[in-house]
Amino acid sequence: MEETKSPKIMLTEEGYQRLSKRVEKEQEKMQQAREDMSRAADYGDLSENAGYMAAKESYNNHRKSLNELQDVLSEARVVEEDEITTDSVDFGTTVTVKDLDDDEEYSYRIVGSQEARMEKGEISVKSPVAQSLLGKETGEKVQVKTPAGESRYEIIEIST
Fold first, then answer.
1. Which of 3, 66, 104, 131 has the smallest set of CB atoms within 10 Å of its CB?
2. Residue 6's pLDDT is what?
3. What is the pTM of this model?
4. Exposed/middle/buried for 158, CB within 10 Å: 0-12, 13-18, 19+?
């Protein structure tokens, strides 16, 4: 990946699209909460109207989430696939490592913090594992310090 002025937030194209869909869902949920508030308001005194208060709280929570997502998307730089090289571990690459202690192989895709999904093998570029792997090349061995302890990995493959 080319060196450029680094923004605070980097996203893959896939991550950007996923967050954009979440924006749409939050907007739909806000609209639903708005409709719920309107219906509940028809029942009279708002200060003692539990339905109205719950709908208002829901609306405020979705508005907060929506604002946070929009801030992320507006500040993010999308790293295009053709910017990603496999010479070394970098943002957007998928790295396969062999755990030298248990002889297991793991694959991780290095992505932005806002799009990381460990269950899918997507780890934050800021995570201890990613930080230990960044800049390393195939065949290199690294020691990774995590809250769970230390692991030793050998980089088997780097791909996009």
1. 3
2. 52
3. 0.79
4. buried
Residues 6+ apart with CB under 8 A from 96: 105, 106, 107, 155, 156, 157, 158, 159
Three-class SS state of 140: coil
How far is residue 80's CA from residue 92's CA, in Å, rounded to a whole number?
9
Angle between helices 50-75 and 13-41 (to 10 degrees): 160
Dihedral in degrees, nearest 10, Cα atoms 88, 19, 75, 77: 30
Q: What is the mean pLDDT of residues 92-119?
A: 95
| Residue 103 backbone zone (phi > 0: left; psi -120 to 50: alpha; other: beta) | left
Residue with the two structure tokens 């719920």: 36
Q: Are β-strands 105-111 and 122-124 bridged in parallel, bridged antiparallel, or unpaired?
A: parallel
Domains and CATH numbers, the chain: 9-79 (1.10.287.180), 84-159 (3.10.50.30)
* CA gap 27, 117 in Å, rounded: 23
